[in-house]
Amino acid sequence: MRTLSLRTREHLWWVAFIAPAFLIYTVIFLGPVISSFYYSMTNWNGFTKTMDFIGFSNYAYMFGDPTFMKAMRNTFVFAGLIVIFQNGLAIPLALALDSKIKTKSLLKVVFFAPAILSPLVVGYTWLYIYEPEGMLNMLLRAIGLGGWEQTWLGDPKFALYAIVVMVLWQYVGYSMIIFLANLQTIPGDLYEAADIDGAGGFRKFRYITFPLLAPSMTINVVLASIGSLKAFDIIYVTTKGGPFQATETITTLLFTTAFKKDNFGYGTAMGVIMFLIIFLISVVQILLLRKREVGDS
């Protein structure tokens, strides 16, 4: 038997190390994804063996379903608000903590702490805050703004925005830490040169800080987009998609359809659409933001 060459043995070692991880990835991720595409083309309740193949009928029905279209609209509004405000608030917080504040170590912990909480814990906490006799309305009365009292999660005009506030409270600190780490890699020489040229604070931010935040901006925008598009638990625990479908998103509608109404095939079709939306948006964002990174560099 011919002895294997050194290069061949190295390749076999690589295969031996990679194969278990690839097998786990295939079983845990690729398998369910592929099976989901098949289930989405069936009329199945998820429990019985009877599974009727109906092709693309679920998809055709979905895009004519007013409930699904409203859920899709709510999903995009929710995600858009999260991406804009989460990053818009995180940048100034990161800039503030990058300065010479004595308590910045404590403030980092305070701002980041909500991110480690379960969304269920956050949801139940804010349920108490948003109650008609909860902390928010009590505070409004205490400062003479009792006329602003609302049933925040019970009014279709305010419910979705109230949940946006919950998510921002939980994750702004997470985005802030990523921006802060990026800020601390910017060379101080650039700011010194700008000072010599007489540049003010705004010009330094516009021409130095903001362009060099491009890598962390890419990370934060993509993470915020994915997280908000697939958000489920914090919405379901607070409103279950109500009132009057005001907070119904694709994920909550998917859960209700598949597990409450036992229409697993149609629910899986929604999951496939959700997967494709997240995948396409993530790819487009990464390509556009990476292009900006290259341009700024």
TrEMBL record:
<dbReference type="InterPro" id="IPR000515">
    <property type="entry name" value="MetI-like"/>
</dbReference>
<dbReference type="GO" id="GO:0005886">
    <property type="term" value="C:plasma membrane"/>
</dbReference>
<feature type="transmembrane region" description="Helical">
    <location>
        <begin position="109"/>
        <end position="129"/>
    </location>
</feature>
<dbReference type="GO" id="GO:0055085">
    <property type="term" value="P:transmembrane transport"/>
</dbReference>
<keyword id="KW-1133">Transmembrane helix</keyword>
<keyword id="KW-0813">Transport</keyword>
<keyword id="KW-0812">Transmembrane</keyword>
<dbReference type="InterPro" id="IPR035906">
    <property type="entry name" value="MetI-like_sf"/>
</dbReference>
<keyword id="KW-0472">Membrane</keyword>
<feature type="transmembrane region" description="Helical">
    <location>
        <begin position="158"/>
        <end position="181"/>
    </location>
</feature>
<protein>
    <submittedName>
        <fullName>Sugar ABC transporter permease</fullName>
    </submittedName>
</protein>
<feature type="transmembrane region" description="Helical">
    <location>
        <begin position="212"/>
        <end position="232"/>
    </location>
</feature>
<keyword id="KW-1003">Cell membrane</keyword>
<comment type="similarity">
    <text>Belongs to the binding-protein-dependent transport system permease family.</text>
</comment>
<feature type="domain" description="ABC transmembrane type-1">
    <location>
        <begin position="72"/>
        <end position="285"/>
    </location>
</feature>
<feature type="transmembrane region" description="Helical">
    <location>
        <begin position="264"/>
        <end position="289"/>
    </location>
</feature>
<dbReference type="Pfam" id="PF00528">
    <property type="entry name" value="BPD_transp_1"/>
</dbReference>
<feature type="transmembrane region" description="Helical">
    <location>
        <begin position="12"/>
        <end position="39"/>
    </location>
</feature>
<feature type="transmembrane region" description="Helical">
    <location>
        <begin position="76"/>
        <end position="97"/>
    </location>
</feature>
<dbReference type="InterPro" id="IPR051393">
    <property type="entry name" value="ABC_transporter_permease"/>
</dbReference>
